[in-house]
Design brief:
Chain A: It is a multi-pass membrane protein. The complex is a heterodimer. By secondary structure, chain A is an all-alpha fold. Chain A has 14 helices and no strands. Chain B is of the alpha/beta class. Chain B has helices at about 45-50, 80-85, 100-110, 120-130, 135-140, 150-165, 180-195, 210-215, 240-245, 250-255, and strands spanning about 5-15, 15-25, 30-35, 60-70, 70, 85-90, 170-175, 200-205, 215-225, 230-235. The chains are: A mainly alpha, B alpha/beta.
């Protein structure tokens, strides 16, 4: 017989209630630093470090921030250890390091946004959105042809890649475990999808170029060829993200639906997909964001044209990244208008991606399973 | 080791939703207190405020006092982690850690808090906790197998073993037997009887026979109407509640006329 809980240790009945209460208080309550302490410490640390560095004549913003942050960590650790105890001191250090890493990760992004916005806003005007570069040398002109090109090519890419990608992942998650042969096929497919997510985009461009040259003759370039090249890049991303999302749907939900006599396809369409729609939409948006900025495969497949072309089946088509690239790499004289147009197209591209993200989030929010009371 | 709890004017919210209104009661040490009441009346919510698990849900908060041996758990400078080391919890649905073996699951409370324990002491703790939860005989030959491979009832007893292995001062149980067969339920009830000699136990249950069998004190919660916050209707000695309740609603509930 093992020890029983009631005989766990000798009874300490003599222990008075008073001292028990005191022990509980000691174990639970510790001092607490006022809520403004971290911010105050951070500011003081940075100011002090800046002062010290200035004294030695080696003041620099990056150096000050890094050393200031380290000082802040040390001071907070000591303060918290004295006032709040060792566990909470460690908690604070970890918390600030994690927050610091987040801020550090954000800095390049903010810097990029600032650069593109400040340089791009110069040509972010009516003419930029109303005229193409047809027969324009030097100043003026716009990117309306490239904006249309981007929207058309990315749109066709999405139309090709999203159904194929989502259907493939439905196969992988819902249908591939029925027979051993299918299971084997699925694991091979999954391996190749993983390889595909890593292929360089230029390979996709070469593939589409070869394919279309084979069908329509050498040198064929069009928006459709560009869209196919991008779809090759986009499909594996959609497959992988959708597959992960479908796997997160608990099996109990599928069983609940089967138990109601609902057929498998309807279970997938009405129960599994709606449950995971938020994640799937996010995955699709990320996949679009990945291909919308591609340059290399489009140079090869969609080509470059200075005028407006909305026919994806015929004629070359320019997209914003390609346009920005060419404006920046092959400026005329004077160079400034070309650079300005390059940055304005970059800004436009960022805004398009942001808008897509906003729409995607709204859609995901609308369709996501409702929680809360 | 055991600790008493005094709840004073506790109001519990989920964001804007007022879940439980103005609860005041005393939970004595070395005794079993049962919470009964219909679904959705806030029993589990009150239970979760007793070890500050309520605030884990985003937007959830509460006002009022929960005093553990006179120390307000929601007072200034109280460390929620320290609270949870004293007040253990067993959940309604079994939740063994899927990446850990049965043995590791039982020892999780110590191992995750990086306490060093000798191998012989570990075996002792594992056997004691699993025996306490009436699981030892079933799993003693496969302690290194994953805990998620057990049946639902076994998983729940594993979770109980995990909670008692750290020997908390107070043990909160949220419908611990709702997934168990009668034999395991009996074993758990025996365990509760044993536990109360050293620990304070609070149990939420829908089984009124169980409340009568295991508890010394019973609290009845109820909703005035749908959408209204839950309220504590009546609390008293279990025998008194089940034989001569003061409140009409309590009588109707325990005699099965509603809920």
């Amino acid at each position: 017989m093992t020890t029983r809980y009631s005989e766990k240790s000798p009874e300490t009945g003599a222990e008075s209630r008073q001292s028990g209460d005191e022990a509980t208080r000691k174990a639970l309550v510790s001092g607490q630093l006022p809520s403004f302490t971290p911010i105050a410490t951070l500011v003081v640390s940075i100011v002090v470090v800046a002062g010290v560095l200035a004294l030695f004549g080696s003041f620099g913003i990056a150096m000050t921030l890094v050393l200031g942050f380290v000082t802040f960590l040390v001071v907070m650790r000591v303060l918290s250890h004295v006032v709040e105890g060792s566990r909470r001191a460690a908690d604070r250090t970890a918390r600030y390091v994690v927050t610091g890493a987040f801020v550090l990760a954000l800095l390049p992004l903010l810097s990029l946004l600032w650069t593109v916005t400040s340089k791009g806003v110069q040509r972010f005007d009516g003419e930029f959105f109303s005229s193409s570069m047809f027969a324009i040398v030097g100043e003026g002109g716009g990117a309306v042809h490239a904006i249309w090109g981007t929207l058309i090519i990315t749109g066709i890419t999405t139309l090709i890649a999203v159904p194929i990608g989502i259907f493939s992942s439905i196969f992988l998650v819902e249908y591939s475990n029925e027979t051993p042969l299918l299971r084997k096929t699925a694991s091979v497919l999954r391996f190749f999808v993983d390889v595909m997510t890593g292929i360089p985009s230029i390979v996709a461009g070469l593939f589409a170029y070869t394919l279309f040259s084979f069908i329509f003759g050498a040198g064929y370039k069009s928006g459709l060829a560009g869209a196919v090249a991008l779809a090759v890049l986009m499909i594996p991303v959609v497959v992988r993200s959708t597959e992960e999302m479908l796997r997160l749907v608990p099996n109990e939900l599928r069983e609940a639906s089967y138990a109601l006599g609902v057929p498998k396809w309807k279970t997938i369409v009405k129960v599994v997909l709606p449950t995971s729609v938020a994640g799937i939409v996010t995955g699709v948006i990320l996949a679009i964001a990945r291909v919308i900025g591609e340059t290399a495969p489009l140079l090869m497949t969609a080509g470059l044209y200075t005028g407006m072309n909305t026919n994806a089946l015929q004629g070359q088509m320019t997209t914003l990244p390609v346009f920005a690239y060419y404006q920046y790499v092959t400026p005329g004289i004077p160079q400034e208008p070309y650079y300005a147009r390059a940055f304005a197209s970059a800004l436009t591209l960022i805004i398009i991606v942001m808008a897509l993200n906003a729409i995607g989030r709204y859609v995901a929010y609308k369709f996501a399973p409702k929680t809360g009371r | 080791m055991s600790k008493r709890i005094d709840i004073k004017n506790l109001d519990i919210y989920y964001g804007k939703f007022h879940a439980v209104k103005n609860v005041s009661m005393a939970i004595p040490a070395r005794a079993v207190t049962a919470f009964i009441g219909s679904s959705g009346c806030g029993k589990s919510t009150v239970l979760r405020t007793l070890n500050r698990m309520h605030e884990v849900i985003p937007g959830a908060y509460c006002t009022g006092e929960v005093n553990l041996d006179g120390t307000n758990l929601y007072g200034k400078g109280v460390d929620a982690v320290a609270v949870r080391r004293m007040v253990g919890m067993v959940f309604q649905r079994p939740n063994p850690f899927p990446t850990m073996s049965i043995k590791e699951n039982v020892l999780a409370g110590m191992k995750l808090n990086s306490k060093r324990i000798s191998a012989s002491r570990q075996d002792e703790i594992v056997e004691k906790a699993l025996s306490g939860a009436n699981l030892w005989n079933e799993v003693k030959d496969r302690l290194d197998k994953p805990g998620s491979g057990l049946s639902g009832g076994q998983q729940q007893r594993l979770c109980i073993a995990r909670a008692i292995a750290v020997e908390p001062d107070v043990l909160l149980m949220d419908e611990p037997c709702s997934a168990l067969d009668p034999i395991s339920t009996l074993a758990i009830e025996d365990l509760i009887h044993e536990l109360k000699e050293k620990f304070t136990v609070v149990i939420v249950t829908h089984n009124m026979q169980q409340a009568q069998r295991v508890s010394d004190q019973t609290a009845f919660f109820n909703l005035k109407a749908v959408g209204e916050p839950g309220e504590l209707i009546e609390v008293g000695e279990t025998e008194q509640i089940f034989t001569s309740p003061e409140h009409e609603d309590t009588e109707r509930y325990i005699t099965g006329q509603f809920g």
